[in-house]
Amino acid sequence: MAKLASEPDRSLCTRLLAGPSPSHARELAQSRYPLAMYTEGLAHGKPAYGHGGYISIPELPAGVAIRKSCRPDIIEESAYIRILPPAGGWLGADTLERLADCADKYGKGLVHFTTGGTIEIYTTREQMVPMVKELNRAGLDVGSTGDDLRCITSCCGPARCDVALIDAPALATYLGRRFMDEQQFPGYPQKVKSGVAGCPNDCIRAMMEKDHSLVGVYRDLPVVNEKRLMAWREAGGDLDALVQACPAQALHRDGETLTILADRCWRCMVCINRCPAIRPGKERGVAWIAGGKYGHRGPQGPMVGYVLIPFLPITNEDYSAIGDLFGAFLELWADHARKKERVGDFLARVGPLWVLKQLGIEAQPQILLSPKRNGY
Amino acid sequence: MPTINVGGVEIEVDEDGFIADPNLWNEAVAKALAETEGVSELTEDHWKVVNYLRNYYLQFGIAPMIRKLCKETGFSLKQIYDLFPSGPAKGACKVAGLPKPTGCV
Fold it and tell me: What is the DSSP code string of A187-218?
């Protein structure tokens, strides 16, 4: 066993603590996080934290959890609160300062931006309620733990991206506000994660990672700008390589002109990503996908989601129809799922067509032709 | 084992405050258990939830699913948390004299 010292043994972190580049170990060491727990894990080749669980704190139905400690002599447990993030991960300097103040005053002086899109602050059980009250005053709230609707993540969207087909953060914010109670009061058979991706590039991996996701799509064909294509060619663009890259063989080259074969095109983003002269089509909406998960538990293991509706139009930034569908599906799943059955396992058991039938939706030919390969 | 005092009678509870013997439950015990949960007064709404849980438990021997509780009593989950700050499992089931529900509810 590694020796226990009041001053953490930092020898295992020496290289991580030194040097000019960003270092998580340096950040940890600057906070009140017990670095000894980290070095303890390094010494034994496995984390010093055990499996955690949800804890009951009156007034806080969700948003609080713990990880058990394998070394209670260093730290009894790691309790943390999970904050619902603004969509797209957009955080202003003021909000970051409020978060920092909360972490400093009530927590261990450490803020964790998780891969799942939430913000976590490590603290103790006693400090949780006062911290949440302070966060509420800063316009933030907690949630997204336990068997509830997890926070609705989205990509950065048109606020920064040039190929965003829909305003993904706006849709995620709409859904997040409409389904706030579902995120804060765990009443589902199992957790359900959601994501909104702005285009079929799906940078947030919604189709694979989220139980219930919406991906921005276009229905018409990509648009080729001849003039820009010429400029791209003159700058060294390789037209043959571009034609080769199309996974559906939908690009046709005739001399210097490029045409897109309508009956072959999948409406993916490959040519658009590769060549600035090709832009997405103008008729835009979202594809509705359910059942993705990375989790290994359950009969199916990790799986890619099923496309349930290939195209749902968005008009005048009115998301209410999408919200209705989102809510109706969650109710259907929650009413019929077995205990601890995630959306993917549920869909594999009952079949996607049963779900569409229950919701009164007509099945589209695309979803039967290749339900998982082609969401576009 | 810890106990709570109900009108001079000691009733055994487990380490989380759930009643050890559900057969000893009565309205006075419910009031005493509610006080341990920070509920000072049991209103008609509280009793609606408690009686539903109690009857379901007597019939089936387990606590109902949270969604079933909400649908049958007509309260939203949020309202149940308003009535019992510790939630349906740790709060309402305790007051209704059910043994501690399993799982992380």
Answer: -SSS-EEEEEESSTT-TT-HHHH-SEEEEEEE
Determine, for residues A187 and B104 on separate chains, whether the beta-carbon distance falls below 8 Å.
no
Nearest to A328 by CA among A302, A311, A309, A303: A309
Chain B residue with minimum CA distance to A340: B103
Beta bridge partners of A53: A66
CB A138 within 8 Å of CB A286: no
Q: Which residue has the tokens 């994501």?
A: A195
Residue B91 per-residue DSSP state: I
Helix (H) or strand (E) holding A325, with range, is helix A320-336
Q: Which residues of A touch B86 (CB under 8 A)?
A: 56, 58
Q: How many CB atoms lie within 10 A of CB B71?
A: 12
**Do residues B103 and B63 lie in contact, with contact meaning Cβ atoms separated by under 8 Å?**
no
CB neighbour class for A336 (10 Å; exposed up to 12, middle 13-18, buried from 19) = middle
Question: Considering only CB atoms, which chain A residues are within 8 Å of B77?
Answer: 61, 181, 185, 187
Assign 3-class secondary structure to B27-89. HHHHHHHHHHCCCCCCCHHHHHHHHHHHHHHHHHCCCCCHHHHHHHHCCCHHHHHHHCCCHHH
Asked if residue A207 lies in contact with residue A250, where contact means CB atoms within 8 angstroms, the answer is no
* pLDDT tens figures, A170-229: 999 999 999 999 999 999 999 999 999 999 999 999 999 999 999 999 999 999 999 999
Alpha-carbon radius of gyration of chain A: 24
Distance CA A181, CA A200 (A): 30
Nearest-5° angle of CA A85, CA A91, CA A96? Answer: 100
**A122-128 contact pairs (CB < 8 A, 24+):** A122/A33, A122/A78, A122/A79, A122/A80, A123/A79, A123/A80, A123/A81, A124/A79, A125/A55, A125/A57, A125/A64, A125/A66, A125/A79, A128/A57, A128/A60, A128/A64, A128/A79, A128/A81
| Cross-chain Cβ contact B105/A58 below 8 Å | no
Q: What is the pLDDT of residues A301-315, one digit of tens each?
A: 899 999 999 999 998
Within 8 A of B78 by CB-CB distance, chain A residues are 181, 184-185
Best A51, A56, A67 residue to mutate vs chain B (most B CBs within 10 Å): A56
**Nearest-neighbour CA in chain A from B53: distance (Å):** 16
pTM of the predicted model, to two decimals?
0.90
> Which DSSP category does A33 fall into?
S
